[in-house]
Amino acid sequence: MVNLISHTPGLDPMLPRPFRVARAIRETADVVTLELEAPAGPPLRFDPGQFTMLYVFGVGEVPISISGDARKPERLVHTIRSVGLATEALCMLRKGGVVGVRGPFGSRWPMEQARGGDVVVVAGGIGLPPLRPVIYHILHHRKDYGRVYLLYGARTPSDLLFTEELKRWQHTLSHAPGASPVLVTVDRAEGSWDGAVGMVTSLIPNLRLDPAHTTAMIVGPEVMMRFTIAELRKRGIPEARLYLSVERNMKCAVGFCGRCQLGLQFVCKDGPVFAFSQVRNWMTQKEV
């Protein structure tokens, strides 16, 4: 497992910096993407999989995965679901608003280890934003990877994120004429939806892979990740090539508060990206 930390040279990741909202995009009824710019100093550089601590003045601080392109650090992008006081305040920000940013923190997705083989990216709901930098990285280095699949599941069609990008990725990720690298499903169809309905794991049998040389990266509810890992193992993907991001209950980013302790590890300090072998004993236990 790679646990390298990318920091902008000369900057202390523990000290908050003010960033200004350059753009606020309403993705769904409860999800907003904020594009942030540093009014002074260098941009914040990061690796796919890392997160920052976003501070709303007078409200509080919350860890949020970076959902932007690592090759374009001048725009620091986060996609946020409103689920509490701090995230609600972040989702209410508009262009010109100011937030404090600390970081980046955390481990990264295994982009180097995945080179030369096939890649399966599996996202459930708000799990797509932490995986978006993976797709950007692959697109920048498309020849370094084999077949690439994005499997994405949401509750309803209105909960789908980055819908225009999903359409573009269908073409830019394609590895062969007629191939469908982006497969989307919903739990419940609405309106004119004519796509797949069902769990995201139902998409796995459609994949054409070289299992021994396939790397899978997974983010979503823990029950979804458990079933996904089981299905990918049935397809023959080695356990050593399964990676997931366990972002639950992160609070302080440095392992002091204990909110995200997982056995002997702290998600915010040792993760959030883990090889499945690192968290197998905990991920396979219900209610842990």
What would you note in describing this structure?
This protein has 288 residues and is an alpha/beta fold. It is built from seven helices and 15 strands. It has helices at 85-91, 111-114, 128-140, 163-172, 222-234, 267-270, 276-283, and strands at 17-28, 31-37, 51-56, 60-65, 76-81, 98-105, 118-124, 148-154, 182-186, 196-197, 214-219, 242-245, 261-262, 265-266, 273-275. A seven-stranded mixed β-sheet has the order 10-9-8-7-11-12-15, sandwiched between helices. Strands 4-3-6-1-2-5 form a six-stranded antiparallel β-sheet. It has a two-stranded antiparallel sheet with strand order 13-14. A hairpin with a 2-residue loop joins strand 13 and strand 14 (265-266). The two termini are 22 Å apart.
